Predict the structure.
Amino acid sequence: MIVIGNGESRSSLDFSRAKDFSIGCNAIVRDFVVDHVVCVDRKMVKECIEHHQKNFTTLYTRPDWIKSYTNHKISTVPKLLDSSKERWDDPFHWGSGPYAVLLAAKLADKVDMIGFDLWSDNKFVNNCYKDTDNYDASNKRAVDPRYWIHQIGRVFEWFPQTEFTVYQTPNWQLPEKWNRTNVHVDKISNFTYTKHCGL
């Protein structure tokens, strides 16, 4: 299973060959067909439904937003396996990326993660869709990745038998919280569709 974030490290890849084995986040449906798309931002749910329904099989979002789209087939994001009273463990503070990784872990025992850059090479936004509708401007400060690191780290912890491979640029550093026996890092240049598409 391929789970695709929107970090700029993925910009060189074409995901059209892996559509039946993929989970994407938010605006990826502007460019590619994915099997599952996760949108927890209400504006992105609206955009996906109104403009990109042919580019995904299933849309997942928060239970709160489903009530507004009763005429459409939408699923809720997976429930967290456990939580705490900490803000970053509150389901409403989980973003599309962490939920997409959680969904992948529930669907497959091997998960390839692409475009989960976490931080920027500079102080500004790192996202393929910056400066477009529903996204931040390119001159806005990058989001603090601590919530994403914690939340995705929780998924790695909850699924110790699942093998996660993070494909990234050569200088990218694995967060300490992700340093687990079931998490591996590989160069994005080594990513291949073969094992996903039977090519």
